[in-house]
Amino acid sequence: MVKSIDNKFTLWALAWPIFIEVLLQTMLGTVDTVMVSRISDDAVAVVGFANQLFNALNTLFMTIAAGTGILVAQRLGSRRGEDARTIAIMGVTVSTAIGLALSALLYTQPRAIARLLHLSDELMPLADTYISYVGGGMFMVAMTAALSTVIRNTGNTRGPMYTGIAINLLHIVLNYVFIFGAFGFPKWGLTGVTVSDNVCRFLSSAILLYMFLFAFERKIRFAEFRTFNAKLFKEILRIGWPLGVNMSCWVFSQLAIYSFLAILGAKELAARTYMNTLESFCFMLGYAFALAVQIQIAHLYGASRTKDAYKAAYRALGLGLSLVMANALILFALGRQMLGLFTSDSEILAMGVSLLGLNLLLQPGKMLNMALGNALNAVGDTRYIMYTSLASMGLIATGCSYWFGIHMGWGLIGIYCCMIADEYARGILSLLRWRERKFLRRAEAAKQQTGAEPSFTV
C-alpha cells in the first residue's frame, strides 16, 4: 500500500498542488492566447474553436481515466492496493489506445471536421494547420490525462504539479521561439504553436510515465501494460461511462455554443475565447478544491468513513465559493484592462466587457455544480449526474442558447445567460441529491448488517 495514506488525503494536502498545477495551466493558456493574438484575431478564433473540438473528443478517453481515478482512490481507502494497481494499469493502456484512434482521425480529416461544425471559409486554412497537427498529438494528451489522474488519486498531487511547472515554463519559451522566430529559428506563426504543443506533450507524458511506474508499492513493469482483468475493467466502465456521458454533454454543449458563435461571426467567437481565458482565473481555486474533495471523498468512502465524507463536500464548497467570488470581483474591476492585453479591436472589447457583470452570477453556480457534482461522483453516484447533465445541458445550455442567442437575436448576451442558468440548475440538483445521502446511507447499512466494505459499483 501507499505509505502514510491518511496524511496524503487531507483536503489542503490534495488541493494546493492541484491549484498550482491548474494556475500554471491557466497562465499557459493566457500566454498562448496573448501570443496567438499577435498573429491575428482570426488565429485566436480558430484556436478557441479547435480547443472546444478537442475537449469534446477528450471525453472518449477521459471516461476511462476518470472512472479509473475514482476506483483507485476507493481501493486504496479500503486497503486493496493490488486491485488499485491493476485498475490503474488498465486505465492508462485503454485511454492511450483511444487517444491513438483520435489522433489518426484529426490528422487525416481536419477540413471535413471543421466544415461539419460550420467554421467559416475564411478560417479554413488556419484550421487545417491547427486541427491536424495539434489533433495528431492527441494520444499524448490521453496518456498524460490517465497518468496524472491515477497519480493524483494515489494521494501524490505534487508529482503532476512539479511536472506542470517545468513543462509550462518550457511551453512559454518554445511558443516564443517558434511563433516569432526568436534566436535564429524560422518564424512559423500558428504552426509554431503546434510544434511547441507536441514537444511539451511528449516530455510531459514521458515524465509522468516514469512517475507512474513507481506510484504503487510494487513497481509496474512495461510487460504489465498487457494486463486485463475483465471484472475490474467492468467496474471502471460502470463508474466511467456515466462520467463520460456527463463530460460529453458539457463539451458538446460548449462545442454547439461555439458553432452558434461562429454563425454570429468571428468577432463574437474571438470575444468568447478571450473571456473564457479570463474566466478560468476566477474558478481555478474552486476547481482545485472540487478535484481535491473528489479524491478525498472517494478515499473516505472506501474506508467506510461516510460521515466524514458527507461533511467534506460542504467544507470544500464553502472554501471554493469564497475564493471564486473574490476572483470574480477582481476580474469585474480589472476586466477591461485585461481584455486589452489580447486585442485592440473596439467591437471585441465591447462584447467582452458586456460579459463581466454576468460573470459574477456565473461563478457561484459553477462552484456549486463542481463541488457537489464531484462529491456524488466520488461515491459512485455517477448516473444521477449523467441524467441531470443530459437534461440541463441539452435543454438549457444548448437548446435555449440557440433559441435566445440565434433565433431571438439576443446574440452573445443571450447565450451567456443560458450558460448561467444551466450551471445553477445542475448545481441545485446536485445539492439536493447530496443531502439525500443515498449512497452513503447504503454503505452504512451494508457495513452494519454484514460488516462488508461498501460496493464500488453503480
Detailed description of the structure:
The chain is globular. The protein has one domain. It has 17 helices and no strands. Helix 2 packs parallel to helix 8. It is mostly helical and 458 residues long.
Q: What is the number of domains?
A: 1
Average pLDDT metric: 85
Dominant shape: globular
Percentage of β-strand residues: under 5%
**DSSP summary, beta strand count:** 0
Low-confidence stretches: 1-5
Q: First CA to last CA: what distance?
A: 25 Å
Class by SSE composition: mainly alpha
Helical content stands at over 70%
Largest sheet composition: none
- Tell me the series of helices and strands, N- to C-terminal: HHHHHHHHHHHHHHHHH
What is the rounded Rg?
22 Å
* Distinct helical segment count: 17
Write the layout of secondary structure elements.
Blueprint: H1 5-8, H2 11-37, H3 41-77, H4 81-108, H5 110-116, H6 124-136, H7 138-153, H8 158-180, H9 190-213, H10 230-264, H11 266-302, H12 306-339, H13 346-354, H14 356-378, H15 382-407, H16 411-436, H17 438-450
Helix pairs in contact: 2-8, 2-11, 3-4, 3-6, 3-7, 3-10, 3-11, 4-6, 4-7, 5-6, 6-9, 7-9, 8-9, 10-11, 10-15, 11-12, 11-13, 11-14, 12-14, 12-17, 14-16, 15-16
